[in-house]
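Hi, here's the filled form for the chain we discussed.

Project: internal
Contact: R.S.
Residues: 206
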Amino acid sequence: MDWLTFFSSSINALAWPASIIIVILILKKPILELLPYLKNLKIYNIQLEFDKGIKEAKNLAEVANLPEMTPNEMASTPSKTVSSDINSSLIIVTHKELTTYFDKLATDNPRVAILEAWLLIEDAIVRYAKKNNLFYLKKSTPTDILKILVEKNMLSINISEIIEQLRILRNKSVHELDFNLKPSQAQEYIDLALRVLGSLGMNDAS
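And the returned structure, exactly as it came back:
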């Protein structure tokens, strides 16, 4: 191979990597300028997904004819909130007192409100299993208990689907911290959660 051939081959070998570097340098600034818009687009999509999830849960609730507790109806609820475990002692409150508590929490901290509402659902699932004498499920997770309740026809598929949708929404609210969760969205979630709690016998204060 003569030097001209060697030189030509070397140029050809370097041409493609060099072109890539040049393109990157040219596009670096536009790409960096585009990143905030891409982030905003992601946040917007999460917002849409959350609203869509709420709508789907509402539709499922209507199909399942979920009950709604009246303002003065009694409800049993854990005496502690986020920091409590499922074996915490219970207190008896009215539905109105419970919604008043959640209304304020949804305004002050929508994410915490959703988390607490979800914890009430998990607690209600465990107590529902105990009420149906499924004591061997004591160490099972609420998700596993829910599956077994459906398998044993102790809970309808419709209600389990609503609970699953609320679980997904809870995960979005906890893990997707970039999007601005509105108090109104938290309130819609809480309204659905309370209807689920009613279907699981939360309003049975006996």
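Let me know if anything looks off before we file it.
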